Amino acid sequence: MLSAFQDLIYASGFVHLTLGHLVMWLIAFVLLYLAIKKQYEPLLLLPIAFGILVVNLPITHLMEPNEGLIWRFYQYGIKWEVIPPLIFLGLGAMTDFGPVIANPRVLLLGGGAQAGVFGAYFVALLLGFDLKEAASIAIIGGADGPTSIYLASKLAPHLLGPVAVAAYSYMALVPIVQPPVMRLLTTEAERKIVMRKLRPVSKLEKIVFPIITAIVIMLMVPASAALVAMFMLGNLFKESGVVGRLTNTAQNELMNIVTILLGISVGATMTAEVFLQPSILKIFLLGLIAFIIATAAGILLAKLMNLFLKEKINPLIGAAGVSAVPMAARVAHKMGTQANRQNYLLMHAMGPNVAGVIGTVVAASILLTFLN
Amino acid sequence: MADLISPLAGKVWKVQVAVGDKVEVDDEVMILEAMKMETPVYAPESGTVKEIKANVGESVEEEQVLMVIE
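Output (structure tokens, whole complex):
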């Protein structure tokens, strides 16, 4: 009788708890607080935080290969690279490329901001990470959650958890991280630059854009195919106007389902053993560096372009090349109105913002091509 | 007479004035919402509000006339 009771105790998780587990619980609670109370990216951070909590409960075997529930989500959703492309399908169905089509120059700004990725890459190597790890960390600078997860899951899966948490945290912190950099690198006069209203974009242009972009990018960088194909297909759904049901599902139900599965799976990779390493602090530092370099690169590129342009770009929108959509565009707009109340940069800033998403996917695919 | 033109596509969030109110140039007369951001719109001229053409909750397009001020 007593031995049965003893067995029950030993079968429970309590006896197997370590300090490491408790620290991870604390982290999970902090993230839950940020997600729920402060509403920091709650759609991702909440399931991630809960995933962290449950995976740090001993002998639940949630992440046990071939057995665990969450292992299956991870294996078939992330390892098999199904979830990030499906998220891109949803993103494409929610994205308006009008501001890019009306002002194709902003594609350069979206590309320029990816300098943050490559800058952070070299700093990461200096800090002792190997080539694949450095790439997985540097992609945080692309400010794109699914792309970061996609790349990290392929190149450095052991870093997937911290990379994802860092990426989503910094995206939520864009309104805090970007403005000082923007103020430092622009003059008051530059911030006052008013941009002319964007020309109207025809329906035909909006339909042709995803098709041409898909062809061009997938030919240039075949490694980008999974993400780009889904991104452009989603956009085509939306712009064609004839598949409202599909667009609706892609924007809503599909996005929500994969977001749930993504969040839990990513969180559940963060066991105490994996997460409580000194390298985690380096990852968070590198994420910050990546965002700062990306912001600076976008602004400086806009200023460079202005040397050759009759109709000047307001350099603030260069910072929106950091593709946290639409946060970075909002930040650029807000700073613009602070300099000049009559300046409405929001739609102008959306150009580099969505172009930056394409830019990040291309950057990730280039890294993948060379490192895989 | 001046038309208050919408600087962007969005929804009318708040209308700060009523027909007959006197406004000065650059007074905040309306707030639009776009991308979950409140964007205030300012009077282009001093005068009296003659007509309010867009009401709270309405979706407006870029360059749509929101208000007429005399």
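The mean pLDDT of chain B is 85.
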